Amino acid sequence: MRVLVTGSAGFIGSAVADALTARGDEPVRVDAMLPQAHGAATAPPDTHRLDVRDVEQWRHLLDGVDAVSHQSALVGAGVRVADLPDYAAHNDLATAALLATMHESGVHRLVLASSMVVYGEGRYACAEHGRRTPEAREIARLDAGDFDHHCDRCGRGLQWEPVDESAPLDPRSAYAASKAAQEHYAAAWARHAGGGVVAMRYHNVYGPGMPRDTPYSGVAAMFRSALERGDPPRVFEDGAQMRDFVHVADVARANLAALDAVRGDGRFAAYNVCSGTPVSIREVADLVAEGTGRHLMPVVTGGYRPGDVRHVVASPARASAELGFTAAIAPGPGLREFATAPLRA
User: Fold this and answer.
1) Got the DSSP string for 221-282?
2) How far apart are CA 344 and CA 12, in angstroms?
3) pLDDT band of 41, cuts 50, 70, 90
4) What is the pTM of this model?
5) Interval 311-340 mean pLDDT
6) How many Å apart are CA 16 and CA 10, to the nearest integer?
7) H or E, element range at 162
8) Which pLDDT tens digit goes with each residue over 82-136?
9) Which of 204, 220, 221, 202 lies closest to 344 in space, CA to CA?
10) Of 11, 270, 291, 294, which sits 20 to 30 A from 47 (CA to CA)?
11) DSSP string for residues in 171-187
């Protein structure tokens, strides 16, 4: 299989491209080498350095391509209003340009990197009143150290439930809005162009090659950096926030399964890409600290960031049933190993 891989020099894109090569496929590597992700690094020698929006510079690369793995994106929360044009340009416009050019070139199979952030908050239920959709957490409650959502009928704390792919999209940041828009563009393209799309909703990805101390770094990398400085990891809220952490090697495997499954049949399908093993943010800090051997206890600060979600835990059921993908690396051993794995500058 010949696969055009955008963002191929990045953390996840490089893992996908390497996995394709390892099984005998041919990745066509493309990356814009944005400074936010790569600093001053030069493009690897087998990588075409180009901006996906500059269609005339790269449309020839689709010759003989069977499918596209679209991993490139501007990431990070996008907390400033001033960030909106950059996210719209690099994520939305680039995806639209890619889709149009794929159609013109007769390439109708796409695997799209999406994200858990499209869900916004996770899924919650009250023991008495069933599933509830909570409003944003009140600042007064956060200031008082009450971090949980509460039932709108009885006031009791809500319990988290796994989020499956049927959950409504509720993006809460510029980045999240751009990922939801990418999915919508891809779904429209599938219907109108007869293409096939598999959208991969990544949960918290970590592993070797993760960037260090950039907007592309995850909380696990930030905890590790603190430990390397001799500082204890600092955990927001009470540390009980639940997430799913999935190893980049498993993410690459999921992408290969998606590339094998996607067909040019007018269908759009989305899948959680996750470990299936929930873990609290405090546990993440503990596991990374154990892996470094520094024995610095995490500091639970009680502080918070307005707009953060409380719990987002994925259901792996659909990916398992339809793609045959089940994560092989659990967060426990994976995060301990990550504590000393090589990172990129």
Assistant:
1) HHHHHHHHTT---EE-TTS--EEEEEEHHHHHHHHHHHHHH--SSS-EEEEEE--S-EEEHH
2) 12
3) confident
4) 0.95
5) 97
6) 10
7) none
8) 889 999 999 999 999 999 999 999 999 999 999 999 999 999 999 999 999 998 8
9) 221
10) 270
11) --SHHHHHHHHHHHHHH
Residue 147 to residue 137: CA distance in whole angstroms: 8
In angstroms, the CA 41 to CA 63 distance is: 28
Contact 27, 5 (CB under 8 A): yes
Q: In the predicted model, is pLDDT for residue 295 greater than 80?
A: no
| pLDDT band, very low/low/confident/very high, at 81 (cuts 50, 70, 90) | confident
Angle made by CA atoms 7, 255, 86, in degrees to the nearest 5: 30
> Which of 252, 248, 255 minimizes the C-alpha distance to 331?
248
Q: Quote the pLDDT of residue 88.
A: 94
Q: CA-CA-CA-CA torsion for 207, 11, 223, 247, nearest 10 degrees?
A: -30
Which helix (H) or strand (E) is 113 found in, with range?
Answer: strand 109-115
The conformation of residue 344, written as its DSSP 8-state character, comes to B
Inform me whether the pLDDT recorded for 215 exceeds 80: no
pLDDT level of residue 203 (50, 70, 90 thresholds): very high
SS3 198: strand
Q: What is the C-alpha to C-alpha distance for residues 217 and 214, in angstroms, rounded to an integer? A: 5
Torsion of CA 53, 173, 11, 211, to 10 degrees: 120
Question: Greatest CA span in the chain, whole angstroms?
Answer: 61
- Rounded CA gap, 150 and 89, in Å? 38
Dist CA 38 CA 144 (whole Å):
40
